[in-house]
Amino acid sequence: MATSDQSTSNPPLAIAGKLSTVPDTGKPLKVGIVGMGRVGKRRAGCVQNHPQLELVATCDVDPSLRMPIRGLRVEAYKSGKPVYENNFLESQWTEMLPPKHMEMENVMFAPLVLKGKAVGLIGLANKPGGFNDDDARMAAAFADKAAIALQNSSNIEALRASEARYRSLSHSLEEVVRKKVDELRQAESLAAVGRMVSIVAHEVRNPLQNIMMGVDSMRGVIKGDRGKTEILEEIEYGVSLLNGIIVELLDYSRPLALKYSTCAVRDLVGQTLKTMAHKLERISVQIELEDKNRQVSVDTYRITAVLVNILSNAAEAMPGGGQLKISSEFGESDGVSVLKLSFKDNGCGISEEDMRQIHEPFFTTKTKGTGLGLPVCNKIVEAHNGKLSITSKLNKGTTVEISLPVEKP
Ligand SMILES: Nc1ncnc2c1ncn2[C@@H]1O[C@H](COP(=O)(O)OP(=O)(O)OP(=O)(O)O)[C@@H](O)[C@H]1O
Ligand SMILES: [Mg+2]
Model's pTM, two decimal places? Predict the structure, then answer.
């Protein structure tokens, strides 16, 4: 048996038997806790089966026995020197043995001393003929080694624990750095795109304006010539397409400054349908709006642009006509009242591979698309603290769902 001060992280060893059987193998000793107690104000414990110390002698004391630190053990603890009692059965100490403790004719306790402080005890018992001062010196020398072994093992364990801790810390730090670098790269490329877009937009808009002015003055000149008027209309359409692309590019690359106003759901959807009337001619539109007069606080102009983008995609997915269901309801998300809008078409749908890319800027499957529609929609919805999600099945159709806080965040 041995006794240890639990204020050190590692308990000392348990050992019993003849002192002469303890070899100086240099091998570790196996110990573990078998009892707890107090020496004065200090907590102490009995130990056995310590993972870092290999067993060199067995202990006959039942490890589950409650063993308060008292009697002769306290003497060794306090004096810091080995103490022995060869007439144990007749001594005052027998009264302090816990019930069911093995019988002892003689006993010796040697303190494990580290940096001048007893951190545990080795207990030796039943030496034939009893203990003497030589045994006490050997026990003290052995206890010194055991104390150092314990200290080393506790250092190794502490090192292992801190190594594991630093390893996991450095792992999570690596993750954070990688994420931040990615964000920075994206921010840098977005800023570069933004600068480029501003320059291109500026350079392209002036000539476009000149073209439009030219178209206006030509219109006066070619009055009544149908063929030439059609050419002018085509030029006008081309210019409006180019202007639209520039607006999308600017929206995507510049920070958004939202202008909130209140608007009924019915008006949001109504305004969008009005703008889209020509594109929805062949499509049967079904509308189901819950609480349609309820007001929501959004940037009406931007949200209408989002809905126009979504309806354009739906219409483009059903070139030969089809069905579009627009529905809305009010609900709650993360404790916030939200308006949920849903746009369900039965158009061409999106393949699984394309689904992974549709939110990427410039991804398009259309010859005349810029691939900025959805990224701009995402940006506007996110600026409102909302969410946009898309589900689709190839050749079956696509559903776009938007959730927007009812109140300005
Ligand atoms: N309702 C839909 N049905 C089928 N495919 C869709 C639908 N909505 C989006 N997509 C797919 O997502 C791609 C990206 O859409 P996005 O609106 O970002 O760009 P685009 O429509 O191709 O071009 P742009 O909107 O800039 O004119 C589309 O090219 C299309 O493949
Ligand atoms: Mg689009």
Answer: 0.54
- Domain limits, the chain: 2-131, 173-253, 261-405
Query: CA-based diameter of the chain, in Å?
Result: 135
Read off the pLDDT of residues 179-222 as tens digits, 9 standing for 90 and up: 887 777 777 777 777 777 778 787 888 888 888 888 888 888 88
Residue type present at position 205: R
Phi, psi of 13 (to 5 degrees): -90, 160
Give pLDDT, residue 51.
40
Nearest atom in ligand 1 to the alpha carbon of residue 368 is 27
Architecture of domain 261-405: 2-Layer Sandwich (3.30)
- Nearest Cα residue to 338 out of 260, 401, 400: 401
Ion ligand 2 residues within 5 Å by Cβ: 313, 373
Kindly give the parts of the chain with pLDDT less than 50.
1-39, 42-58
Give me the CATH code for the 173-253 domain, please: 1.10.287
* Residue in 152, 130, 115, 133 with CA at minimum distance from that of residue 29: 152
Residues across the chain: 409
Contacts of 195 (CB under 8 A, 6+ apart): none
Distance CA 112, CA 3 (A): 9
Distance 309 CA to ligand 2 centre (A): 5
Residue with CA closest to ligand 1 atom 27:
369
What pLDDT score does 241 carry? 80
User: Each residue of 94-148: pLDDT tens digit?
Assistant: 887 777 776 778 888 888 777 777 777 777 777 778 888 888 887 787 777 777 7
CA of 373 to the centre of ligand 2 (A): 4
Q: CB of 347 closer than 6 A to ligand 1?
A: yes
Q: From the CB of 315, is ligand 1 less than 6 Å away?
A: no
- Which of 374, 388, 401 has the most ligand 1 atoms within 8 A of CB, as the residue to mutate? 374
DSSP label at residue 108 = E
